[in-house]
């Protein structure tokens, strides 16, 4: 069972993201256990961009449920779409104090999956440009996928642009 103890809480996650996380869950757990054994007192940082961010976020939910001792966890996601329903977001917000998801300008991916489908973001949104004073953050700036800019999904984030190759 991927998420023991929380299956009856009404938490729902997009199945495609859950399937992707499930494919690597045991390998991530084994690597984390080995690292925690080899280096006592370490904290665990889970970082990812886009789909990698969703997998890292689901690992932030998964790992504490399978580790005998709970180290300090930190999650940072770049260009993170909405992953689950309001109960998922509320559970993550209540159980993980160090969550950050960083959105770049008019990136449209953070407004996916739609709120009208019941998907919600976690707390901890940071926008790279602060020109949007709307309290709705990204949603206030990118009101629909027709307004967003997919090119801004690739960054730059901390000076790094993702998704492009050069020779």
Layout: helices, strands, pairs:
Elements: H1 15-38, E1 44-49, H2 51-66, E2 73-78, H3 86-95, E3 99-103, E4 125-127, H4 138-141
Parallel strand pairs: 1-2, 2-3, 3-4
Helix pairs in contact: 1-2
Regarding quaternary structure, how should these chains be classified?
single chain
Question: How many individual β-strands?
Answer: 4
How is the main sheet built?
Answer: 4 strands, parallel
Strand residue percentage: 5-15%
Spatial strand order of the main sheet? 1-2-3-4
What is the N-to-C succession of helices and strands?
A: HEHEHEEH
What is the level 1 CATH name?
Alpha Beta
- What fold name goes in the CATH topology slot? Rossmann fold
Integer tally of domains:
1
Principal-axes shape call: globular
Helix vs. strand class: alpha/beta
Specify the CATH homologous superfamily: Alpha/Beta hydrolase fold, catalytic domain
* Distance between the first and last residues' Cα: 44 Å
Q: State Rg.
A: 16 Å
Overall average pLDDT: 82
- CATH architecture term: 3-Layer(aba) Sandwich
Approximate helicity band: 25-40%
Account of the 3D structure:
With 167 residues, the protein is an alpha/beta fold. The chain has a single domain, classed as Alpha/Beta hydrolase fold, catalytic domain (Rossmann fold), CATH 3.40.50. Helix content is 32%, strand content 12%. The protein has 4 helices and 4 strands, in the order αβαβαββα. The protein has helices at 15-38, 51-66, 86-95, 138-141; strands at residues 44-49, 73-78, 99-103, 125-127. Strands 1-2-3-4 form a 4-stranded parallel sheet, with helices on one face. α3 links the parallel β2 and β3. It is globular. The relative contact order is 0.14.
């Amino acid at each position: 069972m991927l998420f023991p103890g929380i299956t009856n809480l009404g938490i729902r996650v997009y199945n495609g993201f859950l399937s992707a996380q499930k494919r690597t869950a045991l390998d991530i757990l084994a690597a984390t256990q080995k690292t925690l054994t080899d280096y006592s007192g370490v904290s665990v940082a889970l970082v990812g961009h886009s789909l990698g961010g969703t997998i890292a976020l689901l690992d932030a939910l998964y790992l504490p449920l399978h580790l005998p001792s709970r180290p300090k966890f930190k999650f940072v996601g770049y260009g993170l779409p909405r992953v689950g329903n309001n109960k998922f977001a509320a559970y993550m917000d209540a159980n993980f104090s160090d969550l950050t998801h960083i959105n770049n300008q008019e990136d449209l991916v953070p407004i996916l999956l739609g709120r009208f489908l019941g998907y919600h973001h976690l707390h901890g949104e940071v926008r790279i440009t602060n020109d949007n004073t709307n309290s709705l953050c990204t949603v206030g700036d990118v009101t629909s996928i027709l307004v967003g800019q997919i090119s801004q999904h690739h960054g730059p984030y901390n000076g790094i642009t993702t998704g492009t190759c050069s020779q």
